[in-house]
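ok, trying the design again with the full structure, not the truncated one.
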């Protein structure tokens, strides 16, 4: 966990160049050109502050630290940092980069304050490195709930985008699609508000969903019948099969697997039809070979089915 926080702080420091004058962490975020992703993480952190403070006031220290841990690990490091990378690396919009860096720094610094009672030495080191404006984290103010950091609508929007990314990643994992292979993403919803959400937030989820192109529409027009579908709240996502699978390479791989299984099946059946083996081998060994044969037969059926589909 400490390494995760160190890496997050290094990421921020690497992008805080002389070209960007990062505003004070105490300013009103309305003064910046915040993206929806920025408002989402600020709002999530704002609620975290209230909950953690209430937990600590009630001496629920274990619950409090688990919430801080989950927020830093999942929401901040795994989601928000990945969302803002395109704005920091690929965008010429200086105002957008400044807003992203201000949000990164503000959220991490305040999260360190929540974590400080549990990890005093590490949080002190990172705080002083990232935020030299203050001498020590021990004398800094405890974070408080701020109404200007409350963005409920943006929270709901980004949760839809997270559902989209998780759904696509699950399907790609099941199909063993490498991250380097991009695919077109069709998002179909009859809800105009949800369609608008995905249109406005494409920059936040496009890279995370390994999308080469995103098309948001109200119906299935132009989507192939063989497209792989992913159902998420309020919408259905379609991925063209030809974008996910290299048919020739997959066929070649399956044929090699079929050849290997044929040899294993022949060996296993030969052993189980050998009277000497059946009479002399321990019962456990015979049962083990029967289980192997059943497994090979199941694998062969799956290979033949995939070959048939191709």
């Amino acid at each position: 966990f400490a390494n995760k926080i160190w890496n997050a702080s290094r990421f921020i420091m690497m992008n805080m160049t002389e070209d960007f004058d990062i505003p004070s962490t105490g300013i009103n975020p309305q003064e910046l050109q915040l993206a929806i992703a920025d408002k989402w993480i600020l709002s999530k952190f704002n609620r975290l502050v209230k909950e953690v403070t209430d937990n600590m006031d009630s001496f629920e220290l274990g619950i409090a630290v688990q919430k801080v841990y989950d927020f830093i690990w999942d929401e901040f490091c795994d989601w928000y940092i990945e969302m803002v990378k395109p704005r920091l690396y690929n965008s010429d919009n200086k105002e957008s980069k400044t807003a992203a860096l201000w949000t990164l720094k503000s959220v991490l610094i305040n999260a360190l304050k929540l974590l400080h009672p549990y990890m005093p030495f590490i949080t002190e080191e990172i705080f002083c490195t990232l935020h030299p404006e203050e001498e020590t984290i021990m004398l800094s103010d405890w974070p408080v709930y701020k109404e200007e950091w409350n963005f409920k609508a943006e929270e709901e929007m980004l949760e839809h985008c997270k559902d989209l990314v998780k759904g696509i990643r699950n399907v790609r994992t099941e199909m063993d699609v490498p991250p380097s292979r991009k695919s077109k993403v069709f998002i179909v919803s009859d809800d105009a508000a949800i369609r608008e959400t995905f249109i406005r937030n494409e920059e936040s989820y496009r890279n995370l969903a390994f999308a080469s192109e995103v098309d948001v529409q109200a119906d299935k027009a132009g989507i192939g019948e063989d497209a792989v579908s992913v159902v998420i709240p309020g919408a259905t996502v379609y991925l063209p099969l030809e974008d996910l699978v290299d048919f020739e390479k997959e066929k070649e791989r399956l044929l090699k697997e079929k050849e290997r299984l044929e040899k294993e099946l022949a060996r296993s059946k030969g052993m189980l039809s050998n009277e000497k083996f059946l009479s002399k081998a321990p019962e456990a060994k015979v049962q083990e070979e029967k289980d192997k044969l059943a497994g090979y037969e199941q694998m062969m059926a799956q290979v033949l089915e995939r070959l048939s589909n191709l």
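Keeping the full-length input from now on. The two ends are 44 Å apart (CA to CA).
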